[in-house]
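Hi L.,

You mentioned the student needs an example of a multi-chain input paired with its predicted structure. This one should do, with 670 residues in total across all chains.
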Amino acid sequence: MKFVGVTSCPTGIAHTYMAAEALEQAARDAGHEMEVETQGSAGSSPLKTETIASADAVIFAHDLEVKDKSRFAGKPTVDVGVKKAIADAPALIAQAVRLAEERAANPQAASAAGAGAGAAAGGGALVTKVDQGASVGTRIRQWLMTGVSYMIPFVAAGGILIALSFMLAQVAGGKKGAIGVTNYSLTDAAGLAKSYNLMTHFDPTSGMNWAGLLFVVGAASFGFLVPILSGFIAFGIADRPGIAPGIVGGSIAATMGTGFLGGIATGFIGGFIALFVSRWKVPKGVRGVMPVVVIPLISTLLTGAIMIIILGRPLKWLTDHLTDGLNNLGTNGAGLVLLGVVLGLMMGFDLGGPVNKVAYTFATTGLATVAASNGDAPQLRIMAAVMAAGMTPPLGMALATTVRKRLFTPAEQENGRAAWLLGASFISEGAIPFAAADPWRVIVSSMVGSGATGGLVILFNNTLRAPHGGIWVAPLIGNPFTYVLAVIIGTLITAAIVVGLKSMRSTTSVQATAAADQLVSA
Amino acid sequence: MSIITTDQVVLDLSATDRHEATRTLAQTLVTSGRVTDLEQFLTDVRKREEQMATGLPGGIGIPHARSAAVTEPSLVFGRTTGIDWGAEDGPATLIFLIAAPEGGGDDHLKILAALARKLMRREFRESLAQAADPAAVVDLVNKEVVGS
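Structure written out for the whole complex:
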C-alpha cells in the first residue's frame, strides 16, 4: 500500500523528523511505501498532489495544526500526537492499513465517515478530532464534533432499523401495523397484552413480530444517542478519563428528558471535571489508583449531581419549549417552510462547518425525539429538508464545473468530478475546495440553492427517518420523486448562480490561478 | 564550523536529574562561546521540556530549544547510566542537547533534522553507546549526519 503523512512538533527541530523517520521505517518494514511531509523549521517540501492522490491512507502525527489539511480531504486518516509516531510507528501503520482496507471494502460508508465521522472509523485507539493549540472556538467545535461523530453510527443503526420496522409493519399488519409495532418491547408493559413482550412471546412466523424486533433493536440504539454524544464530548476534552462521567451524565440527562442540550451540557461538565481532577498533582502512591478509582469516582459523582440538582430543570424547560415550538411550526405550514429555508441556508453557509453542524445536529436529535412516532412528524420533514439542502452545494459545483469548464482551474474540475458522488451521498464538505478558493461567490450560490431546496422539501411534504446517506437511503424517503426534484432544483440554482458570479469576474484571474496551480504542482 | 566538537561530548555524564544534566551539557557550549547566556538558554530548554518531556523510547533524551542565547546551531552529546527523562519505557542513557539560534540558517537546521532522523536508527544509537572516546562520537556524527 501507499501512505502519506505529515509530522510536526512545537519547536520543529527534532520530534518532527524523528516521527517522520519512524513512520517511513515502519512502513518499509511492513512492505509499504510512505512519504512524509515534515512541517518543521528546516523547511518542508510539500507532498506532490499525485502522491497524495495515490495514497491509500494518511497519517497525521502532529502537535501543531496540519498545514493545508484540505489536501487530504476524504482520505482515511490516522490522527495522533507526534510522540505516538516515535513511540509506536508500527501500530500506526497497522491502523492505516486497517482503515485503507475498510475503505476499499466499503467506499460508500467510508466516505461518509471521512466527512463527518472519521473518528469512529479508527480500529485501535479511539481518536478525537481535537487539535491541541487551536483557538477556543475551534476547539469547542472539535469537542462537539467528536461527540457527534461517535453518535452518528447509533443514529444510523437506530433510524434505519425503525424505518424498516415501519415498512415491514405496514406490509404485515396493514394500516394499523405501523401503530401496533410501537407497542413491542422486552418487558410486560402496563396496559398491553403479554404477547407484545418479544422476550417471552416471539413468533418467527409473524411478520408483525419481526417488525417489532426491528423496532425494539432500533429503539435500543436510539437510547444511546445522548449518552454517547455526551460521553465523547467529554472524551474529546479529557481523553479517556472523560468517558465515564460523560456517558453517565448523558444517561441522566436523557432520563430527565433534557434531550441533546442536556447531553451537550453533561459532556462539557464531565469532560472538564475529569480534566481538572486528572491534572491534580498527587503523591506517587496514589497515582496508580487515579485513573481507575479517583478520577471516575469524583468526576462521575459531580457531573451527575450538577445535572440533577442544578441544570436538569432549566434544561428540561428549554427542551420542552424547543420541541413545542417546533411542533407549533409543524401545525402552521408557512412557519415550517420558513424553518426549512433557514436550515437550508445554514447547511449551505459553511459546508460542514459549525453552522452547518448546528442545523444538522438539530435535525438528527429531532429524529431521536420522534423515534416512536409514525407518519409525517415535523421532525422527519426537517431531517429530509436538512439532508437535501446538504446535498445541493457539491452537486451544484459539480454541475457548474461540467457545463462551464473554463471558469474553473484544472484542480477544481478534478474536484468537480468527485463532487457528484459526494453530493449524492450528502457530504456537503465536497464543496469546500471550491469555497476555499473563492469564498463569497461559492457560499452565496450554495446558500441560495440549499435554502430553496430546504423550503421545497417541506412544501413537498417529504420525510426522512435516516440521519445520513443521501441518495442511497431513497427507499426511506417519503415521496422520493418530489424529493429528488427538490434536490435537482437546488442544484440548478447553485450552479447557475456560481456560473453567473464567476463569469462577471475577469477571466484573467482564473488563468492566473490556473498558472499558479501548475507552478505549485510542478 | 561543525555542529559538534570533541569538547561537546561528555561520555561520563553524571547528574541526579535531567535539569542538572542539561546544565552540565549546556556549560560546554558556554565555554566554547556558542551560548552567550546560560540561564536564558536553560530557561528556554526547560520551557520546551515542560510542554512535553523530550525523553524517547530506546533510552534517549533530546532536550532542545531555539533560543536567542544561542549563536550557532550546536549539538552536545552526553552518555549516562540512566536519568529519568519522562519516557514511558525507562530512563535515558543517550542525551543529545540541541541548541538552535532563534532565526537559525536553513542549512544548519537541516543538519539537526537529519540528526533527528538518524536517532531513530538502532545501528546509529548502538554505535554511539559503544563509542570509545569523544573523537569517535564526533566522527560518527560528522560521517552519518553532516556527510549525508
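You could point out the following to them. Residues 108-124, 518-522 of chain A have pLDDT under 50 and may be disordered. Residues 2-134 of chain A form a domain with the Rossmann fold fold (CATH 3.40.50.2300).

Best wishes,
N.
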